[in-house]
Design goal:
The chain is an alpha+beta fold. It has 16 helices and 16 strands. The protein folds into 3 domains: 101 residues, Histone acetyl transferase 1 (HAT1), N-terminal domain (Histone Acetyltransferase, domain 1); 152 residues, Gcn5-related N-acetyltransferase (GNAT) (Aminopeptidase, 3-Layer(aba) Sandwich); 161 residues, no CATH class. It binds acetyl coenzyme *A.
């Protein structure tokens, strides 16, 4: 006999209710785990799962607060992105779609948030391989070719044009209609591959875009263009009658990364800054790798820049002396003002970037195996960091350095804040819940991290110079 519960239902009924209740708990699936994005260059590659798969930053960010997709059983989303036209098509498959308590995610809407109007139905997408096959050439051929270099697929080649493929760097105004339309189809790539990227206003005439394109010669003697990467650059007004350039986004398509195209794009923007004698060139929130690339590139230029050599030699020779007092460390910690100014004027490197490269330039002039010299070098960096963060005046106003945990595992984040009263305790201490740790220890960690970066770039620069 079935046992009845208090409410009058049997134990069997209660069990069934529990099971149904359990089945209804939809745990969802992380977008990162069920979406794959393939870069394809022909119709035949669409549908093949062994093509070039893009590794996006984080797809979860496009799907609600927890990054999950709800309501589907065995969901698989394969997205085919054409490297010819930059249109896309999403192949969505699942066993069933049931509201398990958290609704059914509107996949079309979410994918449109990423791909916008570039997302097409399959039939239209397949047609783009013929109808849009020349879209890069027809859009970009009106641009100004600023640079041309030959390129060997398997090994990075020099800039002589004798062999390999031809690569051109072409500049265009983003506000021209065909360029704006092409850029709008490239925006999804910036969302997927650049951390924290946001679209730019293509109607603003101060935006330029630099395309790196590969020229492909056809058997008929005609040619076509394949897009390898691009960079967007904004032209700011600088008082009283100058402009500043800011590199906002730079992206090399994943199959072509690490082959020197990003560096060539950066070099080209830099030559424009010099040729047009703008005030300086800055980079908007560079990623760690872009900053590394940029520091290698700028340090190499600075090593050949005669006007700052006496200043580098003078600091390096002081650091070589047996003992460097705290007081003298301060004067050794940074470049002299005239060096900062001439570097900005001639190379268009701004002060913050020059300070980063300065440490590398000094390090390259020292014997890294000499413990005493390295101690002096470290002390000079520490002195500068210390005065950057806690200069005399602000120290007495209650400045605090606090380590704050972040979502990334590679670095630490530090927050510097001032208590209004200048007293030790402040409501922020409470908010950060015991995050305040010993300042000196944190400063040392900061110095060690800085030293690590300096050594890494110095070694890369030395190997590039000797190759
Ligand atoms: C502001 C922003 O947009 S931040 C976001 C930046 N973009 C992204 O993160 C998107 C994804 N990533 C990318 O698109 C690319 O990787 C980029 C744009 C960051 C870099 O472009 P890539 O083509 O991959 O880099 P590229 O091959 O040109 O340069 C890298 C190498 O050149 C080296 N290099 C730097 N200067 C020079 C020089 N003058 N001569 C020779 N080599 C140099 C660098 O040291 C680096 O070598 P390594 O990695 O072997 O140590």
């Amino acid at each position: 006999m079935a046992l009845k519960q208090k409410s009058g239902e049997t134990a069997g009924e209660a069990k069934k209710r529990r099971l149904v209740g359990f089945a209804k708990t939809d745990e969802g699936v992380e977008a990162n785990k069920c979406i794959k994005i393939f870069l394809v260059s022909s119709k035949d590659e669409v549908g093949a799962k062994d093509g070039f798969c893009i590794d996006p930053m984080d797809l979860n960010q496009f799907f609600g607060e927890d990054g999950k997709i709800y309501g589907y059983k065995d969901l698989m989303i394969n997205i085919w992105l054409s490297s010819v036209s930059f249109y896309a098509y999403a192949d969505i498959s699942y066993a069933s779609a049931v509201d398990g308590g958290k609704g059914i995610t509107d996949l079309k809407l979410a994918l449109q948030d990423i791909f916008g109007e570039a997302l097409l139905e399959k039939i239209d997408f397949l047609q783009t391989f013929s109808t849009e096959s020349h879209c890069i050439r027809s859009t970009i051929s009106a641009g100004t070719v600023l640079r041309c270099y030959s390129f060997n697929e398997n090994a990075e080649s020099s800039d002589n044009l004798s062999d390999g493929s031809f690569i051109e760097v072409v500049r265009m105004e983003l506000c021209s209609l065909p360029v704006g339309l092409l850029y709008s189809r490239l925006v999804p790539l910036t969302f997927l591959l650049i951390d924290g990227s946001s679209p730019i206003d293509v109607t603003d005439s101060k935006w330029d875009i630099y395309f790196a394109v590969k020229k492909i010669q056809s058997q008929t003697g005609d040619y076509d263009l394949r897009l390898l990467g691009f960079a967007t650059v904004y032209r700011f007004y600088h008082h009283p009658e100058s402009t500043r350039l800011r590199l906002s986004q730079i992206l090399v398509l994943p199959p072509y990364q690490g082959k020197g195209h990003g560096r060539r794009l950066l070099e080209t923007v830099n030559s424009v800054a010099i040729a047009e004698n703008v005030y300086d060139l800055t980079v908007e929130e560079p990623s760690e790798y872009l900053q590394y690339l940029r520091s290698c590139f700028d340090t190499l230029r600075l090593l050949d820049f005669e006007p700052i050599k006496p200043a580098i030699n003078s600091v390096a020779s002081s650091l070589r002396t047996d003992s460097v007092s705290k007081k003298s460390c301060k004067s050794l910690a940074g470049p002299p003002t005239h060096a900062i100014e001439i570097v900005r004027q001639k190379l268009k490197i701004n002060k913050i970037q020059f300070l980063r490269c300065w440490d590398i330039l000094i390090y390259l002039n020292l014997d890294s195996k000499d413990r005493k010299i390295m101690e002096n070098f470290k002390a000079s960096i520490s002195t500068r960091l210390q005065s950057d963060i806690f200069d005399k005046d602000t120290k007495s106003k209650g400045k605090h350095l606090i380590e704050v945990p972040n979502d990334y595992d590679h670095d630490m984040t530090f927050v510097v804040y001032c208590s209004q009263s200048g007293e030790e305790s402040d409501c922020l201490d409470g908010r950060l819940d015991g995050a305040q740790v010993d300042q000196e220890q944190q400063l040392n960690q900061l110095v060690d991290k800085q030293l690590e970066d300096i050594v890494e770039i110095a070694e890369k620069v030395s190997s590039l110079r000797s190759s």
